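Following the same procedure, backbone shapes were mapped to integers, yielding the entry below.
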Amino acid sequence: MASATTFSSMLQFFFIIFCCLGYFSFAFTSQDYANALEKSILFFEGQRSGKLPSNQRLTWRGDSGLSDGSSYHVNLAGGYYDAGDNVKFGLPMAFTTTLLAWSVIEFGSSMQNQIENAKAAIRWSTDYLLKAATATPDTLYVQVGDPNLDHQCWERPEDMDTPRNVYKVTTQNPGSDVAAETAAALAAASIVFKDSDSSYSAKLLHTAMKVFDFADRYRGSYSSSLSSAVCPFYCSYSGYQDELLWGASWIHRASQNGSYLAYIQSNGHTMGSDDDDYSFSWDDKRPGTKILLSKVLFYKDLHFTSTNIRNQINPQLCGIFNRNSWRKLLQNFNYINRIQTTIYAL
């Protein structure tokens, strides 16, 4: 009863919000949204680390972190700095890459003249993640920079003089969470580049599979392995099981390899797919995994009804969620359908 009341309250809240959007929609034009999209993607250029390209639009930024990894005999230049500091945190960077790729997969056809900038933002990260994943066998480099010392000195990355320590997860010090998220990012990006750069796409997917195997074979949380280097900054509070399901889901979507769906079916119940989840974030991937799987298996038409969903139910999905979780998923579909109907009417 409590959950039903909460759901009803949320529905009423969002209904009011969308009504307000409809009332004020006259104040916004398509150009406003185009500018917002351009600036959103431009933000990532401001976070770039490494040797900047000639077409860098934020010209007040310069090269930085060119020797990252050199003291460990690996090349870890590139990638993105975190929010307001000069640390390159692997877990949120990989998650950001996954979502950037997902946005292009779902909405790339509507991005018009920003699609190439969006793909460039993804590639800037995946180039770095590829190096981090392939530099040393059975090793994933997951962070550059000491966050405790970095946070004591706020400075431009071009001028930074704080230690550029390198952190990694290995077979002896595992990090299934950050490794599986890295696999998800590479797999999602492989879909983005499948048509425009098939060789790069294949490389991304192949590496994603290897990194996922590493994450699954040597299980453990990177928070336990790296301790104060990642906590309390980006501790994996939800554990690593959600990332394993998330990573397998993305590889399945990218490869259509049924073994990854079988993996989800076999491990879903023991890895928390039945647990309640209230937020989707760099830490907890369960809500995103459920949406991704639902789209892969039977989300055929945006204008669906709960009746035709039930008629199209793939038994494979029923093996992943319990009955209560499945009921919640159908409720969410009905909820999303109402929102879409409202949006189309604006």
Notes: The mean pLDDT is 83. The first strand starts at residue 88 and ends at 89. The beta strands are 88-89, 139-144, 166-170.
